[in-house]
Each structure stands twice: as C-alpha cells, then as structure tokens.
Specification:
Largest sheet: 10 strands, mixed
Low-confidence stretches: 1-25
Shape: globular
Length: about 950
C-alpha cells in the first residue's frame, strides 16, 4: 500500500512538472495594432490561392521580437476555437516572420468567407492573447463562376445631337476632321425580390469605364472604373456589397458605359508608335453579376443578358483625351429607377469580346479626392473668363449654371498661361500630339440651375477658360476636382529648409496627378505607362504611399505587354520583350534597356520596401528572359549596344537641341544594366537557380571591367577622372562600378564639372537626377548637393518653383524666354530625385539583407544649411519615425524601432566615442540592454531611442 502511494505521488509530481513545462506566460503588453491579409484589412474578392497574413504589434520595452506564431482559419466564427479550426491550423510555428506568412491550409473556395486569428510568442517565450477575429472573402476566381451572365454592348447608336462631334487635328494635319467615337451606352433592367435578402454582392467588369446605379443612386464611390490593362489578356472586375441598397419588391439597375481606354478609337490611331490596326480594342462592353443569398438559405443570380434595355443619352461624346460633351436636352429622366417607361428603348446586344482572363481588381480605386475653388478669375485677351485654381491637377471641372436652353458652355482646360499672363497657353493640352484638345462641353436644357460634372475623361490642368456663360464665374459656378487612384499617403518628410519642403510637396503632387490605375507619364497629352518614367520615381512613391498592390498590378501590365522580339546578335532567336509603354496598344518600340529595366526594378523595389518575395518569384522567368535578350546586344567591347538616353536634361530637345543630352544613351543604359545584373544574381539565388546566379555574377563582373575600360577617362587639365557626363558618373558611383582606388578622383571629377564647368548646376536628365544629390551627399559633398538644388538660377529645382509651377515640368527650359511653357508641365519622372529627402536627409533605408525594413539603417547625411528633419517611413512592421536636429556640432536623433525589427545606427570612430543612448553612455546602456556593435554600427532592437553624439 505504501509502495502504491509512493508510486502515485511520483506519477502526479511528474505530470505536474511536465504540464508546467508546457505552460507559457501570457504577455498582456503585446497587442495587435493591425492585422491584414494580402496587406488589406478584412478584404473581399481575394483570388490568390495562398493569401499572405501579416500583423503589426505594439509592445513596451526594448529588444522585443517574435519567436513563434499560431494562425487559425475557419469557415465560420463558430469553428474558430482556441486551439483548432476546420480550414487551417498552422500549430505553433517557430519563426520570426510576422509579415507575408503564406497560407498552407485546405483549398479556398470561390465566394466563401473565412475567419482567422493569430497569436504570437515573444523572444522570451511569453505569448500574446489571440487577436480579434478577422475575415476575408474570396472572389469569383474563375470564369465559370460568372454563371449565366453575358457581355452586353450597345446595339444601335441613336445619337442625334449636333454636338456629338469634335474636331480632330494632329500636328501634321492641315485641317481638323469631325469625329464622334463610340457612343456612351445606357443599360437598365429591373429585379423583383419576393424574399428577404441576407447578403447581396455585385460583380461588374467594364471594358471601358462604367458607372453602376441601383434604384437611382450610384453604387460605390469609384470613378473611371476599372483600371486600364491589356484588356484582351487581362481585364479587372470590381465587387460591391449592395445588401443595404436593395429593397423588397422591385429594384432597378442601371449602367452607363463609356469608352475609357478600351474603346478609345480617335487619338493615336495613325501614330507611328502605335498598333497599326488602331489603339481601340472595340466597342465598350460590360458584364454584371448579382449574387443573392436569402435568409431562408436559398440563393439566386441576376445578370446582364439580352433582356437588358439600351439607349443613348445626354453624354453625346466621350474620349479619355478630348473630354466629355453633355447635352442636357437629351437627358433620360429617372431612367435608373423602378417603373421607368423604357418602351422606346431597344434591347442590348450580347457580344463576345476577346478577353483571356478576368480578375478581381486589388488596387485602390480611382476616386474624386479633393475640390479646388477658383483662386483668381480674370478676362483673357479675347474677353472670355479664365479661372486659376492655384494647383496643377488631374481631374475635371464641376459646373452649376443657369443659362437658356441650347446654350453651349465650353471649358478649355490648360496647365499654363502665356508668359505675359494675358491668356491661356494650351501647350501639351492643345491636342498637337494626340489630336484632341482638352475641352469639356455642356449644352443647357434651360431648366433653372443645372449641375454637371464629367464621367468618362480626365484632364491635366490648372486653368479653365469658359465661354457661353452670362456672368463672372465664382466658386458657386465652377470648381476643379482632383481625380486619381486613391493611394494612401503613409510617409512624410519635413525639414528646416522650406525650399526642400516645397520640393517635396511638388514631387508628391506630380505623382498623385499621374496615378490612374497605372503610373502615367502625364495626365493629358499621353496618359501612358512609359516604363522608364515608372522606375524613375518608384522609390520615392514607395517612401510616401502604399504602393504594394499598385506595382504588382503594373508588373502584370508589363508581363502581358510582352511580345516575341528578335535578338540583336542572334536574330533567328526570339525573346518575350515588353514595349516602351505598358499597358495598351500605343506601344512605341521594344523596350530599350534603360526603359525595360523597369521589369526588374519594380519587383526589386517592391521587395526591398515590403520584403514580400512573391513578386520576385511570380515574375522571375519573364525577368530572366528579358535579361538574356539584353545580353544579346553585347558588342565586341563587352558593352550592350542599346539605350534610350538620359531623358530631358536641361535645354534638351530631341529635334532642336539633341546635343544637350550629354550622356551617351549606351553609357547610361549599361550603367543601369550593371545594377540589374546584380539584382538578377540575387533573384536567381532566391529562386534556387544556382547556374543562372553564377552566370549573372560572371556577366556583372565582365560588364564592370568593360564599362571602366570604355568610359572612365581623365578630365583634361585636372587630376580627376569621370565617365564623360554627370549622369554616367553619378550612376557609376551609385551602382558601385567605380574601382575602389578611383572613387575619390571620380567624386572630385563630378564636383569639378558641376562647379567649374557648369557654374554650380546639374546637367542631368531623369537617370542622373534621381541619384545625383544622394551620391554627392554620401561622398562628402552634401553642401554641393544642396547648392545645386537651391540655386535660383537655371537650371535647378528652385528655378522651376520660382517660375510658378506646382508640378514638375517634362522639360528643363528657360521659361521666361518662351511664349508659353511648352510640353507637359506634369511629369512624375522628375520626382525621383526627392528620394534623397528620405534616404539621405532622413537617413532611413531598408537593409538589403533583411528587406522590408526588417532591418534598417539610421544614418542622416545632410548639408550644413539643414539643421533638422522629421520623417515617417511606412513599413510592414509599423511606421518608423525619426526626428533629428543638429546644434552646436551635436546631432540628436529621436526615433523608434518597430516590434520585430532592428535598426543599425551608423557612426564614425569619433562619433562612437561620444555617443549617448537615452541619456546613458554607450557603456552604461550596454549594461542594461542587449545591443551589438558591429564595425562602428550600433544594432538596436525594438523601442524608442534618443541617440546623441558629437558630429564634426
């Protein structure tokens, strides 16, 4: 008996001790700030088979990190238990990964909603509580789930308004010709509900821009929907929850369909750089599906088909370049409400457009973002009113007018005035290149106050000249509306220098004006996604905005733009190569090296800023093929014989002054290509492609040797060297091409050209200007970088600002010498330089070894005239905020390190000796905190820090 009692006691003690080993302490100080799936919170229309989970955590203290996570996914909240779920139970996974964790559960089903939660363990094994329950809903996922819905298009164009025509005249035409394009279509149908609806979702894909209405009200707040794409290969649908908008009994659905880019059959149609068969994909068409789930457990579909009614209406002309014409005399009344008499309407035509794939749109929609009131109103030289809205924007005007029936009101939108200020100057907005001047037309119905704004076009403008009104325009009559993709601003920069702050503002404006589903070159003349422009400003955009999905979508545009192209050295072989422009049928040529490298740079920048390798793996094969295509341009000297050039340097004009481009296009293209070979070496390693990794390393080393042999030259009458131009020299320094023992000589050679030859000015276009200020600052020439930025004399960014521009112009000209500022005045390729504000002045850059700011450097480098900056940098782990000031030769940096990340504070030997962290000497701080010091770099874990040190 005693032996049994002893055995039982031993057994219970053993069980108790074992159970104690399995218990983890809960850390209530850890809380989830944000949980997301595919970077979105509680998203709908997810179509990836393995979506990605991420979480941002708030925690007190220092050096806090994650050691494990546990994710549960269930088909209902009831099946989401504390330790199990029916769809995926990851179990406890030992991992520091808290961003882009790949789903590994059962196959996800179309249109199903799933619920998930996560808990984590910190570096000491303490666990968080379970997060709040999150959810996500899958999209249609494949074509069969569009069920019986059909594509419909306008069967008969019944427009009769005399205003349905516009004049089309390109620069080489003697006279304009009348054009009317495809008609805007109005479709309607009614649905009767006899049962209570639990949930109703609508899925709509417009080939062309659409607006959807339900019972007289617009569905959603999107405009110019959906984003442009290579429609024959990839189109996008949008999902709306309309449960609350539906009523018992009858419901009326209405759709207005415009041309957008899909049906744009006027501009660029005879352009030598465009598709020879025209740039239109055909007549606009739309497909709509409504999924109804009733409270009794049954379901039903309502969809577009031949039973829908059609008509034309008051939008008698619409073209994405030229604008809308609205003849209010042809309004259709309450056409999108129940009981409307559509007896005179025809039946829609069922069609079968050439569309290979339809996917859910994942990027933010285009919206009306801001309204601008007139800042100045005056009469032009012809006596007509001109309105100055104070800011160059992309969008349209909205009107409130009271005039007689049939009165034509015409609004000509422009970016600029004549240099003498007496009238508008149309420049790029006058239609010389695309043949369509920017004009909005409204024809009054004469029925009291009339309100109108366009639906299917947007313009780039600051000024509006108005004819046909009987009184002076004011804010009650006219406003300007900013219309753009609703990218969320997540970063911020300010400094002690107001000139730099203004440059930052202008740089952001120039980007916001040029995102309409793609990164555009300009919002008026072309509205095209030129690849070179896209990579020129990409990093700056990533510092300021949430661009994760935007660039993933654009990579699909580039991929679907690829076409078989003959090799240069081996013309018998073909590679898949993008064109200079993506997407669309205005293509230009094959993408020259310095433009085509966007195919590698955009995934690289996305990976560097977010740390998600998906984009690298999804597009690895296209990137690899394009790299091989460019290697086929290698000449006997080891240099690729291809390139477009350092676009738009000062005074450059392709026809009138081509020599102003000092940098040989082949040199700048090969500098980029050297950098890209290094990127592809890394990408090959990420894809376990060892042979290609070795090949890239070999080609990179060979190009470096060839580049220096061909282009590194001595500057006469000096002891310096350079690469024959500011741009090439800047690129060589930025990309690590310069031999170590030549760096000092090359930096001095660059400074010599800027100061002694150019009188303290840059001579760079978009390729050189992106890096020149960063390169000078990193190499001890910060004051010179500041000088060439802020000198008021031409050429400089300050000269542009002093000329009154609120966005960056395409060209760098002496504006006061001209009749008016020619070319585009809104080109974001010139915003790329402002990356310098974050990476140099702010001093915050992601580590390459641990991308996505999992590790980042803190290293402000600045000119003597800048005494403080404040930056906020968005990361997948939370925002990094850094605020530094410099006074009496002491630098104070107040910054935070988000949970599960590390910061590397870079110091010199002398700075390290004087450094204090949170008021303690480095030695004292080390006693209480676990930190590392690696080669004059202090590595700090999460927490809030004040780092102070002497800086000469």
């Amino acid at each position: 008996m005693i032996n049994k009692q002893i055995l039982y006691s031993i057994f219970f003690i053993a069980v108790f001790l074992t159970s104690c080993n399995n218990v983890t302490t809960s850390s209530s100080s850890m809380s989830f700030e944000k949980l997301s799936l595919n970077t979105k919170q509680n998203p709908s229309s997810i179509e990836s088979k393995q979506p990605l989970f991420s979480w941002v955590v708030n925690v007190d203290g220092f050096n806090k990190s994650q050691s494990a996570y546990h994710i549960l996914v269930a088909s209902s909240k009831g099946k989401l238990n504390d330790n199990d779920a029916d769809i995926w139970n990851s179990d406890k996974v030992a991992s520091t990964k808290s961003t882009f964790v790949k789903y590994q559960g059962k196959e996800l089903q179309a249109l199903q909603t799933y619920f998930w939660k996560v808990k984590i363990w910190d570096e000491k094994g303490a666990s968080s509580d379970w997060s709040d329950v999150q959810e996500f809903t899958m999209g249609l996922m494949n074509s069969k789930n569009w069920a019986n819905s059909k594509w419909i298009t306008l069967n008969k164009d019944t427009r009769t308004s005399e205003h349905r025509f516009r004049g089309y005249k390109r620069g080489n035409m003697k006279e304009s010709k009348p054009v009317n394009g495809f008609a805007a279509s109005y479709f309607r149908n009614e649905l009767k509900l006899d049962k209570e609806v639990e949930n109703a979702q609508v899925y709509i894909c417009g080939l062309g821009y659409y607006e959807l209405y339900l019972n007289g009200d617009k569905v959603g707040d999107h405009v110019l929907d959906p984003a442009p794409s290579n429609y024959d290969k990839q189109a996008y649908y949008v999902n709306y929850d309309i449960t609350e908008q539906l009523k018992s009994g009858k419901n009326a659905f209405g759709i207005i369909l415009g041309n957008g880019f899909y049906g744009q059959n006027i501009s660029w149609s005879r352009d030598p750089e465009s598709n020879k068969k025209g740039v239109s994909y055909g007549k606009p068409t739309v497909r709509c599906l409504v999924k109804l789930n009733y409270t009794d457990g049954t379901s039903a579909d309502f969809y577009t088909d031949e039973n829908w009614k059609e008509a034309t209406g008051p939008i008698v002309f619409n073209n994405i370049y030229g604008g809308d014409t609205y003849d209010a005399r042809y309004e259709l009344g309450n056409w999108n409400t129940v009981g409307y008499n559509d007896a005179k309407w025809g039946n829609a035509k069922v069609t079968s457009p050439n569309v290979k794939k339809i996917s859910a749109s994942q990027i933010p929609p285009i919206k009306k973002l801001k309204e601008f009131e007139p800042q100045k109103v005056f009469k032009g030289s012809d006596g007509n009113w001109i309105v100055d809205f104070g800011q160059n924007i992309a969008g349209w005007v909205k009107l409130n007018v009271k005039e007689k029936e049939g009165q034509l009101i015409e609004i000509v939108t422009t970016e600029a005035l004549l240099t003498n200020g007496k009238d508008i100057f149309q420049g790029s907005t006058g239609g010389g290149a695309n043949g369509m001047a920017q004009i909005y037309k409204y024809i009054c119905k004469g029925d009291d106050l009339e309100s109108w704004e366009p639906k299917f076009s947007y313009h780039g403008f600051r000024y509006a000249k108005i004819t046909g009104i009987s009184r002076k325009p004011d804010a009650d009559m006219i406003k300007a509306v900013l219309v753009a993709t609703d990218i969320q601003e997540t970063g911020n920069f300010t400094s002690s220098d107001e000139l730099l702050n203004k440059m930052h503002s202008i740089s952001k404006w120039t980007i916001v004006d040029n995102v309409h589903g793609i990164p555009e070159d300009c919002p008026h003349r072309e509205k095209c996604g030129w690849l070179g422009d896209a990579h020129a400003f990409c990093e700056y955009a990533l510092y300021n905005y949430d661009m994760y999905d935007f660039y993933k979508k654009y990579m699909e545009d580039i991929k679907t733009q690829m076409r078989p192209t003959k090799g240069h050295n081996n013309p018998e072989k073909k590679w898949l190569v993008p064109t200079m422009i993506a997407p669309g049928k205005r293509t230009s040529t094959y993408a020259k090296i310095d433009w085509g490298v966007a195919t590698m740079y955009l995934p690289w920048y996305n990976y560097k800023f977010y740390g998600d390798e998906t984009i690298v793996k999804d597009y690895y094969e296209p990137m690899k093929g394009l790299t091989d295509f460019y290697l086929n341009y290698k000449g006997e000297n080891g240099i690729m014989q291809d390139g477009m050039g350092d676009w738009c340097p000062p005074r450059w004009d392709r026809r009138k002054n081509p020599k102003a481009m000092e940098c040989d296009p082949i040199i700048s293209a090969n500098a980029y290509f050297y950098d890209v070979l290094g990127i592809m070496e890394r990408f090959a390693k990420m894809n376990n492609d060892a042979s290609y990794e070795a090949y890239m390393k070999q080609e990179k080393e060979a190009l470096k040797e060839a580049f220096n042999k061909a282009f590194l030259v001595a500057i006469p009458n000096t002891s310096y060297k350079w690469y024959k131009s500011q741009t090439a020299t800047v690129q060589a320094l930025q990309f690590g091409i310069v031999p170590e023992n030549e760096i000092e000589s090359v930096v001095n050679g660059l400074a010599h050209d800027i100061v002694a030859v150019k009188g303290g000015h840059h001579s760079t276009g978009i390729h050189g200007n992106r890096y020149i200020y960063t390169v000078l600052t990193e190499n001890g020439k910060g004051d010179l970088a500041h000088e060439i930025l802020t000198t008021p004399d031409f050429p400089s960014q300050t000269y542009v600002m002093n000329s009154g521009f609120t966005t960056w112009p395409e060209r760098q000209f002496v504006w006061e010498e001209m009749e008016g500022p020619t070319n585009s005045l809104n080109h974001p390729m010139h915003s790329g330089f402002a990356t310098y504000f974050y990476e140099s002045l702010g001093g915050i850059k992601s580590s390459i070894e641990a991308p996505g700011f999992k590790e980042f450097t803190v290293n402000p480098e600045f000119p003597s005239k800048v005494t403080h900056t404040k930056v906020s940098v968005p990361t997948p782990y939370g925002s990094i905020k850094s605020n530094w000031s410099f006074k009496n030769k002491v630098l104070s940096i107040d910054f935070n390190v988000p949970f599960n990340t590390k910061a590397k504070v870079i110091l010199t030997d002398d700075e390290l000796k004087s450094v204090k962290i949170n008021g303690d000497s480095l030695e004292d701080f080390q006693k209480e905190n676990s930190i590392k010091i690696e080669k004059n770099t202090i590595v700090l874990g999460s927490g809030k820090y004040l780092v102070v040190y002497s800086k000469s």
